[in-house]
Request: fold
Amino acid sequence: MLGALEYILKFVNWFFLFYLMVYATYLLLSVSVGAWDLYYANKMRRIKNEIKHDFYFPVSIVVPAYNEEVTIVDSIESLLQLEYRLYEIIIVDDGSSDDTVKVLVEHFKMRMVHRPIRKRLICEQEKAVYKAEGLRVPVILISKHNGGKGDALNMGINASSYPYFLCIDADSMLQADSLEKIVQPVMEEDNVVAVGGLVRAAQSLKIKDGKRVGYRMPWNLVTSMQIMEYDRSFLAARILMDRFNGNMIISGAFGLFKKDMVIAAGGYDRETLGEDMELVVRLHVFCRNNKIPYSVRYEPDAVCWSQVPESLGDLRKQRRRWHMGLFQSLMKHRKVFMNPVYGWLGMVSYLYYLLYELLSPMFQVIGWAAMAASAVTGILNWDFMIRFYLMYTMYNAVLTITIFFQRIYTLNLKMSALDSVKAVVVCVLENVFFRLFLDVVRATAFIGYGKRKKQWGEIKRVKQDGV
Reply:
């Protein structure tokens, strides 16, 4: 019995070490590629070698909202400050139980209008439609019966007037140049069907009239560690996958889509928790199955500032929901896995999201537990285990610090010496403790989430300073 246990623990340990080494190699490669691409793009901007044009194709901005009375006005105000000539804003309230509709109607002096909406995508019925007068762009508010975020997005697409739509969360803010930046890939290529932007934590920013006026590291450790995590996530994988049209995720907080292609593919899935990822994967599948030339792009210079959870409880709810959405999306499109018909998407991207996103929490928890058990039983030396853990976490911490300050440089952000020190300390803590916490949260994501497909997964919102 002891011999069998020893064999199992040794196998798990070796597999875990190999798993970590592959991930560390991938992380180094992706960070190197991402850092070079951002450096080169920043260099081109400095010598004014970037696309400038007087033509603006029209874009509909769709803002789904549920119980967002605290942040919704600031979010819409930031959208009205965009340096773009031709766009509309469509707010879809998905049956909020708070005063989201009331604060919007009062602040923007909206009036109820009769506007028939052609339902090209399935969604719940609208209750009322409001329109703001006297603003620089059209602003429409649709109040509808609750159907979930995917349902609200489908309503916004149905009501939109323009050939491209941008989806943005109601707790998020855009910089003045964000819309102009995210449309750049569409200006460069005719076959772009979707573009994702960079999402950063809004709690680190002070913004006024669409311009950054300050940047800081919050004292809240939960918030600060997410700042590091977001920067690593959006640089480490997405720039590399963008090179071979392999991105499977565009954040629901900030993404541009070609409307007729989304409608042809069936719109957002109303029964999936991760409706943003599921739509992107379905666009890949739809275009490849129908032999339609297409591209899904990532534009790191287009920045969206989105509120992140400020408590471990809210963070836990958010990440469990995200992980369930990832599982649903991968399982729904499992035919993509290692299927040469889908090229790099099936052979590389799907494999990465399966092994290092979906299954990673379980591998990490079981792996570290097996190493600890091996040390207790004498199979593994305690000194080796501790040294390996510290070396691995410090390796990841150094890469994360590099990513963070590289983004500070390329976005021309200014930080105080105190905030720089805080960033380094938080980065180490994030890799030593925070990632293990998230692994446990995601590994237990399936417990109690079977009947929550249409719930929004609310977190506590706070009003931002300097908006």
Q: What stands out?
A: The mean pLDDT is 88.
